[in-house]
Write a structure and sequence with these properties.
15 helices; alpha/beta; globular; 512 residues; binds 6-O-phosphono-beta-D-glucopyranose; Rossmann fold; Dihydrodipicolinate Reductase, domain 2
């Protein structure tokens, strides 16, 4: 344990207080998530003076790597993945408070050592424990049970005990329910922090502020004025070496009930009465629960599954999905999904939500498009004007971080000619933000006990409930209905048909 008090504060994160003293127990300390994101995020927090004054990290691994070896390993990871140049003094301060321990859930006895260490810390007044499970989902239950077994999840001594887990939360509705049940047998809901890394993105958090801190959007944010909503999360990345994981997962499970539904719920929720975790999370859960259940026939009609074939993305040649490592040669796993959903409530009745996500596509693009209804054309009937362009409000998450409003304007000249133009707000033009991992806010919020950005059990289940009919229908359909698309394109043609049959179009992935 070291004193993290320091005069250096070079980070642009605007947070006001340092969290209470705590011990950060990092399971999977030698794994990918810890290397790429958790340690660099802790470093950024250290640099911003946002770690507790009395703070320590216990890196827990099944094999029990010696502390020095763990330091060397994590330092190499920090140098590789840091989002800004590493200040050695800050890194040393952080690393001085990292120790290593062996904790193997298949040998629950090994957790006694962890308990002894934590008990020792209590004597030096570090009573709060954050257990970060940076491990595959199969580890969530055994690790939590082993922790509960030695009594270190119990809050009755006045210290807080928090469990942090990261998606996937189950692979379908039944397994998500079982996982929630297992965790809630051991701890209370307020102790569980379920991370969806999309909620660590500033632009995603900004959706709430855009909608509810501005008086002009809410009055028109409903079926009377909005024609439809498009949610796009496309990637140029192919499956790479993740074939094993991806074969069992597919684009729908990997992206929709979590990341795309986070965007959907922020865009579609009703205004919460308070900006607190209970109110915000209740509204989000409510809107997810209102996603209309579709029959098997409807799901097949309202969804498109695609799988990429060899192609070129920019200068990069991408092989066929079925030729990727650990992928079956006759795989029917989808690498692309497009779907049309309806939300059964007064605000959204009759407003379709079109979602699409996929790998090996033309562009990396995460955005939400709110397309407003067209103005009545009648007034321009006798003029040269042939048509209006769309009024789109585009919330750009990646790579463009900002908000764009498209509207019609008169082209200068003697005739009435109308063209579509854009009003743009780009984060980088207004704010100077130090590059971050996206985990800083999430980890900081865990430490201060603010769970507004974390998923509650009911919304996880509501998300799975909405996608379960698609999973079932596709499983039954097998290869039938699986479309192909060439890597580097905008996805299968059938996805265009899905939206075009309603007289609408996807926003193009070309350009910005
Ligand atoms: C992860 C998925 O949750 O999100 C990956 O498992 C995907 O397959 C990633 O590539 C996308 O995240 P981002 O932040 O790059 O859009």
């Amino acid at each position: 344990m070291i004193n993290m008090n320091t005069e250096m504060n070079t980070n642009a994160m605007v947070k006001s207080k340092r969290p209470d003293s705590c011990c950060f127990v990092l399971f999977g300390a030698s794994g990918d998530l810890a290397h790429r994101l958790v340690i660099p995020a802790l470093y950024n927090l250290a640099e911003a003076d946002l770690l507790p004054e009395r703070f320590c990290v216990i890196g827990a691994t099944r094999s029990g790597v010696p502390t020095q070896a763990l330091h060397d390993d994590l330092m190499a990871a920090l140098n590789k993945y840091a989002t800004r140049p590493v200040n050695q003094a800050t890194a040393n301060r952080l690393f001085n408070c990292i120790t290593s321990i062996r904790a193997d859930p298949s040998e629950p006895g090994s957790f006694e050592h962890l308990k002894a260490q934590l008990d020792g810390l209590c004597e030096s007044d570090i009573r709060n424990h954050l257990y970060y499970l940076a491990v595959p989902p199969a580890g969530f239950k055994p690790i939590s049970e082993a922790l509960a077994g030695v009594g270190v999840l119990d809050e009755s001594d006045g210290g807080w005990r928090r469990l942090v887990v990261e998606k996937p939360f189950g692979t379908d509705l039944a397994s998500a329910r079982a996982l929630n049940r297992d965790l809630l047998n051991l701890v209370d809901e307020h102790q569980i922090y379920r991370i969806d890394h999309y909620l660590g993105k500033e632009t995603v958090q900004n959706i709430l502020v855009l909608r509810f801190a501005n008086g002009m959007f809410e009055p028109i944010w409903n079926r009377n004025h909005i024609d439809h909503v498009q949610i796009t999360v496309t990637e140029t990345l192919d499956v790479g070496r993740r074939g094993n994981f991806y074969e069992a997962t597919g684009a729908l499970r990997d992206m929709v009930p979590n990341h795309l539904f986070q965007l959907l719920s922020l865009v579609a929720m009703d205004p919460p009465s308070l900006f607190d975790a209970h109110s915000v999370r209740s509204e989000k859960a409510e809107v997810l629960a209102a996603i209309q259940r579709q029959t098997e026939q409807e799901t097949l009609r309202n969804s498109i599954r695609g799988q990429y074939r060899a192609g070129r993305i920019g200068e990069r040649e991408v092989g066929d999905y079925r030729a990727a490592k650990d992928v079956e040669t006759n795989s029917v796993t989808e690498t692309y999904v497009a779907m049309k959903l309806a939300i059964d409530n007064w605000r959204w009745a009759g407003v379709p939500f079109y979602l699409r996500t996929g790998k090996a596509l033309k562009a990396k693009r995460t955005e939400v498009v709110i397309r407003f209804k067209r103005a009545p054309f009648s007034m321009f009937r006798e003029t040269e004007v042939e048509r209006f362009s769309q009024n789109d409000l585009v919330i750009g998450i990646e790579p463009t971080e900002g908000v764009t409003l498209q509207f019609n304007t008169k082209v200068p000249g003697p005739q009435v000619v109308i063209d579509g133009v854009e009003m743009k707000f780009n984060y980088k033009d207004y704010f100077k933000v130090a590059p971050a991992t996206g985990y800083e806010t999430l980890i900081y919020d865990c430490m201060i006990g603010d769970n507004i950005l974390f998923q509650r059990a009911d919304s996880v289940e509501a998300g799975w409930q909405a996608v379960q009919p698609f999973l079932d229908a596709w499983k039954k359909a097998g290869a039938e209905g699986l479309c192909e698309y060439k890597a580097g394109t905008q996805g299968p043609d059938a996805a265009d048909d899905l939206i075009q049959r309603d007289g609408r179009r996807w926003r193009s992935l070309a350009g910005t």
